[in-house]
Write a structure and sequence with these properties.
five-stranded mixed beta sheet; about 50% helix
Length: about 525
């Protein structure tokens, strides 16, 4: 196992037996937890990983929770019975990675102020309850691959005692007889002790929860590459140096670089501009994305101008962008129930699972390029960029909108006005997640299908008159007569008869009107 693939260690010297570590846990394992660890987790991750988990667990007294005392990692290597060299470090990294993969461990690297010393924090997590474990499809399938299907079924039965026969009756009623707390105990308001509460709060272990980073794609820009060429005299230099310990900030930098295809030199230039950081040094995501979008459009114009001058307009169309970009370190899977069909323009280049994965995880700038053999039309790129920056629509929802506009038949959709109307309709209906966007597209497909069936359906005798009147009023648009259908006056009986002079005058007027028409 390479160091770069485990625990996200950039260099081997960042994780040695001389570095210090601490252990944190806020639970104490019960006999049921020990049984779950031995019979369920050990077949999946192996005995060495379980041994490391127990070694870390016993760094703190079993009757306590909180932190252990700082110690060097040499103690862990010797406790596992491995060497102190590179082989032992790789073994420790491999076992911690296995524990992290199944959710039993979280590893954090803490940069201490005032020096380059780093402290590793191992946070232990309680094993899942058996009922919760066997409802997790990933863990259940992994355990099945390790010990077999029937062994998993037998193992499930070992962790739960069956209900007695008396409870199997369908008509048995259950009544709650529990007594609430305040019906037995009375706590007087004046008995509250503010000094006691303050003392308990001071004694309690304060621990900042680790920030949970979203599963975003990354351009792979390391902090060392970013700071190495950053200007020393820049006013933003202290803020960029803080990114060394700011995982969220580096994730934002890498995501923006990945989305707009920027390299480390471009990101240095953007981070050097005023207004990208707040006065207290926080990286402003919206401002950075706005400037990266402008930089991206300027680069596109320069590239198109160079291609036009050099006469290489066909070079971009000759190389299809079938190669997928670097996969993100974490991905969001797509359920088969949310699959949308692969468009005809992308048939043969990817299957339905790959297409829906890209639509769920890629930025809209990269997903849009897959529908064109060469460059994306500038007006289309600007239309979706406006939806992203001004409407603040999530990227996966924008990708579903791209599928609805470009991936379905109908050239009337290729207009900026139609794209803006569909986006406005989605925002008005509260479509802000991937699942809601999928339902919206399917509803639109059903609506269009019903409209097509209504147009093809033959009209009966009852609707013939209404259809004739509708065709008469639509004649101006379809090329027919512009005159509306005038209802015929019914003949009335019992009225006054016209005299011969009046009849002759009426015939004369009718003939004149006929000649004028």
């Amino acid at each position: 196992m390479e160091l770069d693939d485990s625990m996200r260690i950039e260099h081997g010297h960042q994780f040695t037996e001389h570095h210090r570590y601490i252990v944190y846990r806020d639970f104490s394992m019960s006999p049921l937890d020990m049984k779950t660890l031995s019979l369920i987790y050990q077949p999946m991750i192996g005995a060495p990983a379980v041994s490391l988990y127990l070694l870390l667990y016993h760094q703190i007294d079993e009757t306590r929770t909180g932190y252990s005392r700082p110690d060097v990692q040499r103690r862990l290597l010797l406790g596992l019975g491995v060497g102190l060299g590179e082989t032992g470090r790789r073994h420790l990294i491999e076992q911690t990675s296995r524990l992290e993969a199944v959710g039993l461990l979280q590893t954090h690297r803490i940069a201490l102020p005032g020096g380059d010393d780093m402290l590793y924090e191992y946070t232990l997590v309680r094993p899942l309850e058996p009922a919760e474990f066997f409802t997790n499809p990933h863990f259940t399938l992994l355990l099945r691959d390790k010990i077999g299907k029937y062994a998993v079924i037998a193992l499930r039965e070992q962790f739960e005692s069956p209900a007695p026969e008396e409870l199997d009756h369908a008509g048995a009623g259950r009544e709650d007889l529990s007594v609430p707390f305040f019906e037995i105990f009375r706590v007087q308001p004046h008995s509250a002790d503010a000094e006691l509460e303050q003392a308990l709060a001071e004694i309690a272990t304060t621990r900042e929860p680790a920030p949970v980073l979203p599963p975003e794609p990354s351009a792979g820009i390391a902090y060392g590459e970013l700071i190495s060429g950053f200007p020393q005299s820049s006013a933003n230099r202290p803020f960029v140096e803080r990114l060394r310990t700011d995982k969220n900030g580096m994730a934002v930098v890498n995501y923006v670089a990945y989305k707009y295809e920027l390299d480390v030199v471009d990101m240095r230039r953007l981070l050097d501009e005023p207004g990208v950081f707040s006065p207290d040094g926080a990286l402003l995501f919206d401002e950075l994305q706005q400037r990266a979008s402008m930089f991206y459009r300027q680069n596109r114009k320069l590239e198109e101008e160079r291609n036009r001058i050099a006469g290489r307009s066909v070079s971009s169309a000759g190389v299809p962008e079938d190669a997928a970009p670097d996969e993100p370190p974490e991905e969001v899977p797509v359920s088969e129930d949310d699959y949308l069909p692969v468009p005809e323009s992308m048939a043969g280049r990817c299957d339905i699972a790959q297409y829906n994965f890209l639509m769920r995880n890629e930025p809209h700038t990269r997903f849009l390029k897959r529908f064109f053999p060469g460059a994306v039309p500038a007006w289309l790129d600007r239309a979706f960029e406006r939806i992203d920056l001004h409407y603040k629509m999530p990227r996966e929802v924008i990708n579903v909108l791209i599928h609805y506009i470009l991936g379905m038949s109908g050239t009337q959709r290729l207009s900026g006005d139609f794209i803006d109307k569909v986006a406005s309709n989605m925002l008005a209906r509260g479509v802000d997640t991937y699942e809601k966007a999928i339902r919206y597209v399917r509803e639109q497909e059903k609506l269009e299908q019903r409209m097509k069936e209504a147009e093809r359906r033959p009209q009966g005798a009852q609707g013939a008159q209404g259809g004739a009147q509708g065709r008469a009023w639509r004649g101006g648009r379809s090329g027919g007569t512009r005159k509306p259908a005038i209802p015929i006056v019914e003949q009335r009986t019992g009225g006054r008869q016209l005299t011969p002079e009046e009849m002759a005058e009426a015939l004369r007027l009718a003939s004149e009107l006929e000649r004028e028409s």
